[in-house]
């Protein structure tokens, strides 16, 4: 039996706002946190890929976490991104996340070095043995170059009570069926892609670790609630309303479009750290047309 842990249905993988000099913009971060909580986020993920962790120092991550924890003040759960393609670094980051007071950690399949399934098992086992807070695995083959198989996820979930969930960013829906069939009954699956939330929920996923919730949190939460309540037509209607926005928020590398969208609605500035670059004017026009059309339809 795994640790009883429930971070909710809509978890926002939060962006990191920057000033023009690319330092962290803490006033904007406070505004963003309150915006996310007010628009339906059940939990906030700090220092995930959407937070531009490849360009954040460990010191910046820790400082930002302390700030987020202070502003959240117990209103929602806080999850810390603690992954690395170095097992030792991932272990150290996970221990640091626990020390900082994270409610859980999200830890990604090692990227670039493309480990075998046995290597993945050993990697996550090393983390699970040294921290006793809940662990959410993160499977995203598009960024890591390898796919963690359901059998590997199930072996980890069965052997380590603190491995409680997986964020699945893989469009092969058969893998969701395999995960749900092989894993303990209380093991949680989260969609890692906004547009696949309803399809994955139809196969047993609990909700989504979302990017779109930055700008469409209330509707996203309503969509998930409607589906769970058996109101499938309402859920589908909300999905189709959100779908153009889901797509446009990934028209360029994440989190570039969602930062532009947040800037457009006055929450943060659009600055990103290189090697990411902001959208050009034509791309912004394309995104904002969809965002404004969506916003105009919100009731």
Give the key terms.
8-stranded parallel β-barrel, globular, alpha/beta, TIM Barrel, 299 residues, 8 strands, 12% strand
What does this 3D model show about the protein?
This protein has twelve helices and eight strands. It has 299 residues and is an alpha/beta fold. The protein has one domain (10-229): Aldolase class I (TIM Barrel). It has an eight-stranded parallel β-barrel, surrounded by six helices.
Task: Furnish the topology, listing elements before pairings.
Layout (H helix, E strand, L loop, with lengths): L9 E4 L12 H13 L4 E4 L11 H15 L4 E5 L5 H14 L3 E5 L8 H12 L6 E5 L1 H4 L5 H10 L3 E6 L5 H9 L5 E4 L5 H5 L5 E4 L2 H16 L3 H17 L7 H9 L16 H17 L2
Parallel strand pairs: 1-2, 1-8, 2-3, 3-4, 4-5, 5-6, 6-7, 7-8
Helix pairs in contact: 1-2, 2-3, 3-4, 4-6, 6-7, 9-10, 10-12, 11-12
Q: Percent of residues in beta strands?
A: 5-15%
Order of helices and strands: EHEHEHEHEHHEHEHEHHHH
Total DSSP helices: 12
Describe the strand arrangement of the main beta sheet, using strand numbers: 1-2-3-4-5-6-7-8
Task: Quickly give the structural class.
Answer: alpha/beta
Extended strand count = 8
Q: For the CA atoms, what is the radius of gyration?
A: 18 Å
Q: Please state the overall shape, judged from the principal axes of the Cα atoms.
A: globular
CATH H-level superfamily: Aldolase class I
Count of the separate structural domains: 1
Helix content: 40-55%
The main sheet comes to:
8 strands, parallel, barrel
Reading off the top of the CATH hierarchy, the class is best stated as Alpha Beta
Gap between N and C termini: 42 Å
Q: List unreliable stretches of 5+ residues.
A: none
Which architecture name does CATH use? Alpha-Beta Barrel
For this structure, the CATH topology is: TIM Barrel
Mean pLDDT: 96
């Amino acid at each position: 039996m795994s640790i009883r842990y429930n971070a909710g249905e809509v978890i926002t993988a939060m962006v990191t706002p920057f000033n023009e000099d690319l330092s962290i913009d803490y006033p904007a971060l406070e505004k963003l946190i309150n915006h996310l909580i007010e628009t339906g986020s059940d939990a906030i993920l700090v220092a995930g890929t959407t937070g531009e962790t490849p360009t954040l120092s460990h010191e910046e991550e820790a400082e930002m976490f302390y700030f987020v924890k202070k502003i959240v003040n117990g209103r929602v759960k806080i999850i810390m991104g603690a992954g690395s393609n170095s097992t030792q670094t991932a272990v150290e980051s996970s221990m640091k996340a626990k020390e900082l007071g994270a409610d859980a950690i999200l830890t990604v399949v090692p990227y670039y070095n493309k480990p075998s399934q046995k290597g993945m098992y050993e990697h996550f086992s090393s983390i699970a043995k040294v921290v006793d807070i809940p662990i959410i695995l993160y499977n995203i083959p598009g960024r890591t170059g390898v796919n963690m198989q359901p059998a590997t996820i199930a072996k980890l979930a069965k052997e380590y009570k603190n491995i409680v969930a997986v964020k699945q960013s893989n469009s092969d829906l058969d893998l969701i069926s395999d995960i749900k069939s092989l894993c303990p009954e209380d093991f949680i699956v989260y969609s890692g892609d906004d547009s696949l939330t309803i399809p994955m929920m139809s196969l047993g996923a609990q909700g989504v670790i979302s990017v779109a919730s930055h700008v469409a949190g209330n509707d996203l939460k309503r969509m998930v609630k409607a589906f769970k309540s058996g109101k499938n037509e309402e859920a589908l209607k909300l999905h189709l309303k959100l779908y153009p926005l889901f797509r446009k928020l990934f028209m360029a590398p994440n989190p570039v479009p969602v930062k532009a969208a947040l800037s457009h609605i006055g929450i943060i500035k659009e600055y990103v750290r290189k090697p990411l670059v902001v959208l050009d004017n034509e791309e912004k026009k394309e995104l904002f047309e969809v965002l404004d059309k969506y916003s105009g339809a919100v009731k």
